Amino acid sequence: MSKVYFTTARGTRWDYRFSVLGRFERMLSECGLMNFEKGEYVAVKTHFGSEGAHRIVRPSFLRKVTDAVKKAGGKPFVTDTVRIMGVDYLEVASQNGINHLSVGAPVIIADGPFGKDSLLVPAPGEVVGEIAVASAIHDCPAMVVCSHIKGHIQAGYAGAIKNLAMGGVSAAHREGGWKKGRGHMHCHGEVPLSWDAEVCTYCLQCENVCPKGAIKFIDEKLVQDKTLCWFCGRCARVCPSGGLTLPVDNDTFQKSLAESAGAVLSTFTPGKVIYINFMFEIQPECDCMPSCDTPMLQDVGILVSDDMVAIEQATVDMLRKGSPLPGSVAEERECKPGDDVLSMVNPRNYMLCIEHARRLGLGSREYEIVEVS
């Protein structure tokens, strides 16, 4: 049974040692998971957010992680893969507070400024085949995966598996293009985008939100470039009139997430990757969207483990016991305490992903909570 360390989001004593940051610092020191060799590079994988989406892992927590890595003898760098072009993405990261001064380590783009620095790696399972793992992650001997817990358009739940699966791979491969990169996970069993001109309001939100520029309106007609579209579903998600629909083979997508995460993990020696799930500002959408909503669940706390599947299972178990927040999408969906808010907000079978990761041998769903107070 895997150990999952937990500290609550509550801070009830006016003493730094018992603040969330103080307890987190102590948890990293006492958990015994920072097994890094002297001088060993350690990738601290997180999400830089986007212009308009600021509910990411706060720099103060990332600083505690890099300090702990240094204390253990490692050389940390904070990283993510290209969501927008690399130089622009580093500017967004700095705008969101992630830079060398704030996090105490270099901040780099793992797949290079153009999102093509990657190596093809075989993935376990039957869906993905092979996928382009970002070179700075592929070549690094150790990693700390810092995940902001939230909902997700297609995944339903976004935690450590999604962080590795989509954030550990390149936007594209130099030879295989996006179909060997992140987009590869989105395009299994999909059907074409459907547009209903009669209900379209021509608000252009779909065109503006598309990360690939695959949608244009020409002479009041939607034109989709199918060579660029990777079926991420953002366009249909933001359409206010229901004029766009994108049917999704969600079961296959959930399996592809687990398999892609497995490909990333295969580049590391067992025991050299640890996971930290931050259950704060739990919003309904991914941090790569160009905006963010109010949190839908009350802050819960922080989990740390060296078992990716166990920490994911523990996280969703805690979220299911969480308190839905007023003034959020959870209230709009009439969620009550004890409801599976994630599934009610984004109806997806996210447990299939966690179970598929277990079947692939990426961890155990059985866990023991060790509380740090």
Written overview of the protein:
Helices cover 29% and strands 20% of the residues. The chain has 373 residues and is α/β, with parallel strands linked by helices. It folds into two domains: 2-184 and 249-371, Rossmann fold, CATH 3.40.50; 191-245, Alpha-Beta Plaits, CATH 3.30.70. Strands 4-3-2-7-14-15-1-16 form an eight-stranded mixed beta sheet, sandwiched between helices. Helix 6 (160-167) packs across helix 9.
List keywords for this structure.
Alpha-Beta Plaits, globular, 29% helix, Rossmann fold, 373 residues, alpha/beta, 20% strand, 2 domains, two-stranded antiparallel sheet
* Biggest sheet strand line-up: 4-3-2-7-14-15-1-16
How many separate domains? 2
Please give the count of helices.
13
What is the H-and-E element order?
A: EHEHEHHEEEHEEEHEHEEHEHEEHHHHE
